[in-house]
Design brief:
The complex is a heterodimer. By secondary structure, chain A is of the alpha+beta class. Helix content of chain A is 49%, strand content 18%. Chain A has helices spanning 8-57, 154-189, 191-204, 220-263, 273-294, 306-320, 342-359, 388-396, 411-421, and strands at residues 58-60, 66-68, 85-90, 95-96, 106-107, 119-124, 130-140, 143-152, 304-305, 327-331, 337-338, 363-370, 374-381, 425-430, 436-443. Chain B has 2 domains: 2-119, Rossmann fold; 126-216, Winged helix-like DNA-binding domain superfamily/Winged helix DNA-binding domain (Arc Repressor Mutant, subunit A). Chain B is 41% helix and 22% strand. Chain B is built from 8 helices and 12 strands. In chain B, the strands form 3 sheets. Chain B has a 5-stranded parallel sheet, with helices on both faces. In chain B, helix 2 runs parallel beside helix 3 (59-68), helix 6 (152-163) packs across helix 7 (171-178) and helix 6 crosses helix 8. Classes of the chains: A alpha+beta, B alpha/beta. The interface between A and B is medium-sized, with 38 and 32 residues.
């Protein structure tokens, strides 16, 4: 089985080639047989004719011997030692063709029976040449007369060779053409599969939602099934996400009740239970965020306008941090759009702006710059900023964000994780207004 | 300070109501969106605490209906939905603050006090009226720098007058913000409390505006 190639094209090519070669081989063998029969028939006919004309010219002398009444040697029977011979075998003394020059040829086997039709016998000529011999017995009156006529074997081989050479060349050319044709057909025939693979890859990378495009009739049911599978997958994913969200939200209300109960000192004397409730809450929140984000494969389908989202966020943060009376400075082009789901963009902006508002003193600056492939959103505050060591610490916490304590920079690893899911990045620097500058780089929406 | 709590989970609602009452708030509870919206439409509240996932009418719908009807009471959304999209949507619908479950009671109380203070037009937590200072953030009163001890009813009346210092507060308004709907009270009870307060902080600080109500004033006018 290891001779069967893995590729469909290879299999088709190998199978078709095998059948083409077999058919051509059989054709060759049959043709060879037919041509051989034809040439033998021609030679035999000629020899039989010669035997008949010899028999026709034989006369019985008065002494009982036989003679030829007339000359019967036409070409090539008159050419000496040409292999084309005839001989009257019985009765002796023998008569023979001019070409025999009074010699005789030997027969591989003795012919004794009556032969109303000529029989074929192998023979050897005076020069040891291989002969094809036809033998027939007549009766001259009551006298039996056996006449043999021969042709050299090369007289058969020559025309056979002549006939077979072009035939073999033709068959080889035919085989090459057919196999070449099969090869092209397989390549062309399998092209829709390659196209289908390409379209599926697009779906996987998030550039397309379904397999589209014109497909051959044979491939259409496959495409339909694939699309149904994709749709089913999306439905299941959505259902799973909803379940996760419902589970998380369903846990939070009793968790809130539990937390309120534990706040009373009589319920949690050692102050160990409330931190556990908080840890549970953080883990739920972390995995909920992850489930939400991981469900969105690629981002190229999604498109979110930055400017209105940022405006909504600022409206929210103005109320959330009402007492600080922060000044928001926004420099975002109205058309700037990122290739992210709105929910995820909200999550990133929300976490980063929350940090900026928490640590900023008077001012938060938001700027979006359109680079070629991405949009760079920088969020600056005029707070205390972070030292190099703190930056490393904050970003490292992202690796085990569900374990980390809330507080400074808790939102940064979440935003960073989300940005990376979209092929973006998050980096930290020093703001022009003294505090922390967070640079969020996201793919631009086309 | 009268609060409307709209929360469908009975356990949590019970815990929050009890905790808020210990902080001297008057609390009404609605366990579904329909009742919540109706209460908010008909009763004078200083603030509302609104859950989002409510039976009958969703929290956001309740909030939008209030805002569409011109009800400007400060609203704090208290929900399990912690996504920023939900928060932003909540604020867009007209919320003033947003607290995610689970939460600390202290945090809820602080935020409610801040909302009520800001809604009354005070940027600073310290509301000063002559010798009387009300810390709207901590909920404590001092008179000439000394802590003032008050009963729950006295605190409710005085905090209400303090938030509207130099403005006349009607008797009905005071009455509605001091008692919840369930309590049986004498019709002259507000006068009784005012009289007790005057004994504690001095008669000149609370002025009676005949036929209209009461005014907390530093006294110069």
């Amino acid at each position: 089985m290891r001779f069967i190639p893995e590729s469909l094209g290879g299999r088709l090519l190998l199978g078709a080639s095998a059948f083409i070669l077999m058919a051509l081989l059989i054709t060759g063998v049959v043709m060879d047989f037919a041509i051989r029969r034809f040439i033998q028939g021609q030679v035999d006919g000629r020899l039989d004719g010669q035997i008949l004309s010899v028999a026709d010219a034989l006369r019985v002398n008065s002494d009982g011997t036989i003679r030829l009444e007339r000359i019967v040697d036409g070409p090539p029977f008159e050419r000496p030692l040409s292999g084309w011979y005839w001989e009257v075998l019985t009765p002796s003394p023998a008569l023979g063709s001019t070409s025999l020059r009074s010699e005789s040829f030997a027969l591989a086997q003795q012919v004794t029976e009556d032969h109303p039709k000529p029989v074929t016998v192998d023979g050897t000529g005076p020069r040891d040449e291989q002969l094809r011999v036809r033998v027939q017995r007549f009766y001259l009156g009551s006298r039996p007369v056996t006449i043999a006529a021969s042709a050299p074997l090369h007289a058969l081989a020559g025309p056979l060779h002549e006939a077979l050479t072009p035939l073999i060349v033709t068959l080889v050319l035919l085989a090459a053409t057919l196999i070449g044709g099969v090869f092209l057909q397989v390549r062309l025939g399998l092209r829709p599969l390659a196209r289908l693979r390409g379209e599926l890859a697009q779906v996987r990378s998030g550039k397309a939602e379904r397999v589209m495009g014109a497909q051959p009739i044979e491939v259409r049911p496959l495409v339909t099934e694939l699309n149904n599978l994709l749709d089913q997958n999306a439905v299941n994913l959505e259902r799973a996400r909803r379940h996760v969200a419902n589970l998380a939200h369903g846990l939070k209300t009793p968790l809130a009740t539990l937390a309120l109960a534990l706040e009373e000192p009589s319920h949690d004397r050692e102050k160990k239970l409330l931190p556990l409730v908080n840890l549970m809450d953080r883990r739920i929140r972390h995995h909920l965020t992850r489930a939400r984000a991981a469900a969105q494969g690629g981002g190229e389908r999604a498109r979110s306008l930055l400017s209105p989202r940022i405006a909504d966020h600022i409206a929210a943060f103005t109320k959330l941090y009402a007492d600080k009376q922060l000044e928001f400075v926004v420099d975002v082009h109205a058309d700037a759009a990122v290739a992210c789901e709105a929910q995820d963009l909200d999550e990133m902006l929300g976490n980063l702006l929350d940090n900026a508002c928490k640590w900023g003193r008077q001012k938060v600056r938001i700027k979006a710059e359109n680079l070629e492939q991405s949009i760079e959103i920088s969020i600056e505050d005029d707070g205390p900023g972070l030292s190099a060591g703190q930056v490393a610490d904050v970003m490292q916490r992202g690796q085990r964000v569900d374990e980390s304590a809330p507080g400074y920079g808790f939102g940064l690893p979440i935003a960073s994780e989300l940005a990376e899911l979209y092929g973006g990045s998050l980096s930290l620097g020093v703001a022009t207004i003294r505090g922390l500058k967070v640079i969020l780089r996201l793919p631009v929406a086309r | 300070m009268r609060i409307l709590l709209v929360e469908d989970d009975p356990e949590l609602a019970d815990a929050v109501v009890r905790a808020l009452r210990t902080e001297n708030f008057v609390v009404d509870l609605a366990t579904n969106g329909e009742d919540g919206q109706h209460f908010g439409d008909t009763e004078p509240y200083d603030a509302a605490v609104l859950d989002l996932g409510l039976p009958k009418v969703s929290g956001v719908a309740v909030l939008k209906a209030w805002r569409a009807a011109g009800r400007g009471l400060p609203v704090l959304i208290l929900t399990a939905r912690d996504g920023w999209s939900d928060k932003v949507e909540g604020f867009k619908a007209g919320a003033d603050d947003y607290l995610v479950k689970p939460f600390r009671m202290e945090e809820l109380v602080m935020r409610l006090r801040a909302l009520i203070r800001r809604a009354a037009g005070h940027a600073s937590p310290q509301i000063v009226c002559g010798p009387l200072t009300f810390d709207a953030q901590l909920g404590s009163f001092t008179l000439d720098g000394m802590p003032l001890r008050l009963t729950a009813l006295e605190w409710r009346v005085l905090s209400c007058l303090s938030l509207r210092a130099e403005h006349v507060v009607s008797r009905t308004d005071l009455f509605q913000r001091v008692y919840d709907g369930e309590t049986e009270v004498e019709s002259n009870s507000v006068e009784v409390i005012i009289a007790r307060l005057r004994r504690k902080i001095g008669h000149q600080l609370i002025e009676t505006s005949r036929g209209r109500g009461y005014r907390l004033t530093a006294g110069s006018t």
